[in-house]
């Protein structure tokens, strides 16, 4: 199958690197200096957890240069850039193309489906910690790389989804075809939203949350607020999300930060609305108290 990955940053770049290494037909859509560097010297990945550096030739093109019809489109842009990818998807997608959004914002797949009628859009999320260090160079902070994806209703299911999961596994990506993607996407959100919020509130990296102290306690409290929201939404995680997310956190390099933190510190546009303010709105919608989120939102809004 042909894979097209829109966005070659910490998420899309790592997926493109792993799928290419796994022998899959994958094309990365990138821009500007990052694209030039990948064309000239391939993609470099610094693996922080083991000290290794891998350089791999990859197929990378601009939106305008892409002239194939992909079987699978992995959308790995930031939430605020989502509107910009629709024209490309509409141009290249065929009737059997599957679109898998892999974003931090909860509920992205449903929103994209409204914009792309006639094309199957699943929901999806990823567990990975990586960022662009320089054009053509990624830094991956931990070994974890897990993609969870699935359709929102059984009527949308297609056998090709199992093929995609198998391709992920063959490429060193833990590919999980979910039978309850609403739950599993919110489970991922219960990690990425609190860790980003705490990092911003205390201006700290993962190490400060890994150690005992106020950042760690806020992290746990915010997870519990997401759990309370899930219960109000009729979603049962079926596990201790505080324990689960602390284990994920423990695998990160102490200096790791979230993309939202990095964007805000660099004065760039960020996903703060979807990752923090949206939780405050959800609390009001479902009548669930979210005092920790309200505290963080108040400080950041100021």
Identify low-pLDDT runs: none
Q: State the distance separating the first and last CA atoms.
A: 48 Å
How many strand elements?
13
Count of individual helical segments: 12
Main sheet makeup: 6 strands, parallel
Give a structural overview.
With 302 residues, the chain is α/β, with parallel strands linked by helices. The protein has twelve helices and 13 strands. Strands 5-2-1-6-7-8 form a six-stranded parallel beta sheet. A four-stranded mixed beta sheet has the order 4-3-11-10. Strand 1, helix 1 (12-21) and strand 2 form a beta-alpha-beta unit. The mean pLDDT is 94.
Keywords:
302 residues, alpha/beta, four-stranded mixed β-sheet
Brief description of this entry?
This protein has 302 residues and is of the alpha/beta class. 45% of the residues lie in helices and 19% in strands. α1 links the parallel β1 and β2.
Question: What's the helix and strand layout?
Answer:
Blueprint (H helix, E strand, L loop, with lengths): L1 E5 L5 H10 L3 E5 L2 H10 L1 E5 L4 E5 L2 E3 L10 E4 L10 H7 L5 E4 L6 H8 L4 E2 L1 E5 L2 E5 L2 E4 L5 E5 L9 H11 L3 E4 L3 H22 L3 H5 L3 H19 L8 H10 L8 H7 L6 H15 L4 H11 L1
Parallel strand pairs: 1-2, 1-6, 2-5, 3-11, 6-7, 7-8, 12-13
Antiparallel strand pairs: 3-4, 9-12, 10-11
Helix pairs in contact: 6-8, 6-12, 8-9, 11-12
